[in-house]
Amino acid sequence: MAGLEYVIRRLNWRRTHYGIVRMPGSVVIGALPSLEEAEDDRAHREAEVRARVANPFICGPNHASRSRLPEPIFCDWLRDAGIEPLQAGQKKPVNWVGWWEQARVRFTPQQPAHVWAGLDRVRFFEVITRPEGSVGYAVVRVDWEYNDNWMEPGTEGGTPIKVFRKWEKAEQHRRELEEKKRHDLGYSSAEDSADDRGARYETTRWTEEELWPLGSSPNGLHSEISTTFAYGGTAPFYEIVEVDLPSLHAGVSDE
Amino acid sequence: MNSVHRVFVVARLGWNVRSWNESYTHFWPVTRDTAEPEDRQFVPIAAFADRVAAEVRLRELELEAARVFNPFWALGHLSELTTLPAPELMTRLAASVSSLPDTEIMHTTMRSNRDQWLAWWDDHIPSWSDETLATVWELFDAVRFYAILEVEAE
């Protein structure tokens, strides 16, 4: 019988004009054999992202999206730690973003963590368990589309082509498809691949990964300045995505 | 020996989240201008041997999505939220949950009563059971985050 493994998943926070918002879905970051290791890894990643996000109140459009505690209860939660919250006006919502910027300079070293703890919907990673090795690998076609200026891949996803039990088989299939696609497009040599006179393929969706969740745009607005490109045949046409195989009898062979 | 099968892949639908100015953010599904029957883009999540198991997982994931995504974040006409006509939506919502806003959802542009419905959703969803939320989410049938695809497997 298979043991369990502990999977760290990154939740699907996306950039908005006010900050970031959590969308449905997640991305698998990795799997570890023990819960303690996975929790340590999650905590380390969480702390790193919190340091970059800095102000937790930019996470979500309103209080309800940030905390399960109703706003008055959240204020009591703050007072429990000696933090005096802003009072809501009669009709105006509390400006929590501005409050944090002013209040944080007076916080004790422990108080920021207390605020984050009360904002229990603002979490960037989670740990789940699954049977060890119950994963497969889907080869997904990147759906490039011309936008009158350059080729765009869409902000996420593509078309799943085939699922494999083994990563090596998936990678072999991806490479074959990739080579055929490049050949069909006339990018058959290293020289062609490096040619910057060919079509431009927008790669922002991949290059922004390391800047997640804030991205490169300082105000969150879509800007062509932060757009990155690959030229000629260096753009990816297929990629591999890990998928759960909840049952080893899912119809995907072990060969 | 390699054998090729068909499996049922539960996939998350790609969504765009984009801001062009400092007033609002647009949310809309990623679509392609294609002659193929499927014009959406997908992030595969899980593969199943049979469709029934895939459908069970899809319903679980869709319910999780409903706990995360307020459908009134999406700007646009009512047709972006539901295929139901407004009166039918209101009747069926009233049969499922109490305390609806006074005015029916006309459309969800910035000048509409969108804010009222946004707040209504946020205020009430914590008290909805999974069954109630599933019933409500069923009515907002134009907002979907998951689909099932039949894909080759080896």
Structure keywords:
heterodimer; A: 255 residues; alpha+beta; three-stranded antiparallel β-sheet; B: 154 residues; two-stranded antiparallel sheet; 4 helices; 32% helix
Describe the structure.
- Chain A has 255 residues and is α+β, with helices and mostly antiparallel strands.
- Chain A has seven helices and ten strands.
- Chain A has helices at residues 35-53, 71-80, 96-103, 111-118, 167-184, 190-193, 204-207; strands at residues 4-15, 20-32, 125-131, 135-141, 145-146, 151-152, 159-164, 200-202, 229-231, 238-244.
- Chain A starts with a strand and ends in an 11-residue tail after the last strand.
- In chain B, the strands form two sheets. In chain B, strands 4-1-5 form a three-stranded antiparallel beta sheet, with helices on one face. Chain B has a two-stranded antiparallel ribbon with strand order 2-3.
- In chain B, helix 2 (86-96) packs antiparallel against helix 4.
- Chain B has one domain (5-153).
- With 154 residues, chain B is of the alpha+beta class.
- The chains are: A alpha+beta (255), B alpha+beta (154).
- At the A-B interface, strand 2, strand 4, strand 7 and strand 10 of A face strand 1, strand 2, strand 4, helix 1 and strand 5 of B.
- Strand 7 of chain A pairs parallel with strand 5 of chain B, so a sheet runs across the interface.
What is the structure about, briefly put?
With 255 residues, chain A is an alpha+beta fold. In chain A, 28% of the residues lie in helices and 24% in strands. The longest helix of chain B has 18 residues, at 51-68.
Unreliably modeled segments of chain B: none
The run of helices and strands of chain B is EEEEHHHHE
Strand content of chain A: 15-25%
Strand order of the largest sheet of chain B: 4-1-5
Number of helices of chain A: 7
Summarize the amount of helix of chain B as a percent range. 25-40%
Largest sheet of chain B: 3 strands, antiparallel
* Head-to-tail CA distance between termini of chain A: 19 Å
